[in-house]
Write a structure and sequence with these properties.
The chain is α+β, with helices and mostly antiparallel strands. The chain folds into 2 domains: about 45 residues; about 160 residues, Galactose-binding domain-like (Jelly Rolls, Sandwich), CATH 2.60.120. Strands 1, 3, 4, 6, 9 and 11 form a 6-stranded antiparallel β-sheet that branches. A 5-stranded antiparallel β-sheet has the order 2-5-10-7-8, with no helix packed on it. It is globular and about 40 Å long.
């Protein structure tokens, strides 16, 4: 009887132990539930990763559109043309000498060789800065006095031609190309020049030969200079049709 009682008690103890062991299987659904609950986080992460490329695409499109619709001025003439307008390649930003003695009009209707207007330059010769001369360089990039290692490649051209006249006749002026020297030097150095010209009231064509010059990186595409000693009362000139050919 004692043995039977021990057996019965053992069975009861084993039954309790098996019931208490159930939490282990129960933990598996809890883990599965946690994994399931984590899915929205994973989905959100995918959505956030997808968003930046869409924003990047928008930015690129905007930049491309701006580049096409609003080109910089002057704009570079495509390579391979037999003639290029100087004013479309260089900026008249290099004012020199007695700069306050200069009056500049890019589109004067007073006189023109072709088309409705021409460049008009008035030099007062007042020596406002005590220099006794004044001039303008047409530069690229804008205001590049050798500060930037950049310029226009004019290698395909052999001449710079232009038309010029004086308002009253007798004006003495000089025109140049190249010659800019700073931290970086113009590939066309020293400059080429017409020498001092005496103008008449009629339009006259002049030319500077470029053959044999290094035109791979021209910073100073064109230059006008006048001096008070040669124009004591000042001078007014007109320029038109300035081309590389």
């Amino acid at each position: 009887m004692f043995i039977a009682l021990v057996v019965v008690m053992s069975i009861m103890v084993c039954g309790c132990t098996d019931h208490q062991g159930m939490p282990a299987p129960t933990s598996t659904p809890a883990s599965t539930s946690s994994t399931t609950a984590g899915l929205p986080t994973t989905v959100t992460t995918v959505q956030q990763t997808t968003a930046p490329p869409a924003e990047t695409s928008t930015v690129v499109t905007a930049v491309t559109t701006d580049a096409v619709t609003t080109p910089s001025t002057p704009s570079q003439t495509p390579s391979g043309t037999s003639r290029a307008d100087m004013s479309s390649l260089f900026y008249p930003s290099g004012w020199m000498g007695d700069t306050n003695d200069i009056e500049y009009a890019a589109n004067s209707a007073d006189s023109a060789h072709s088309g409705p207007d021409a460049i008009k330059i008035h030099y007062s010769a007042e020596k406002t800065s005590g220099m006794g001369w004044a001039g303008i360089y047409w530069l690229y990039p804008d205001n590049n006095w050798g500060t930037f290692d950049d310029g226009r490649d004019l290698s395909e051209y052999t001449h710079l031609t232009f038309w010029v006249k004086g308002a009253v006749g007798g004006e003495k002026v000089e025109f140049k190309v190249g010659g800019v020297d700073g931290t970086y030097r113009d590939s066309l150095f020293p400059f080429l020049t017409t020498g001092v010209l005496t103008l008449s009231t009629e339009w006259e064509e002049h030319s500077i030969a470029l053959t044999g010059a290094d035109l791979s990186r021209v910073m100073g595409g064109f230059c006008w200079v006048s001096a008070a000693a040669q124009n004591p009362s000042g001078c007014t000139i007109y320029l038109d049709d300035i081309y590389y050919e």
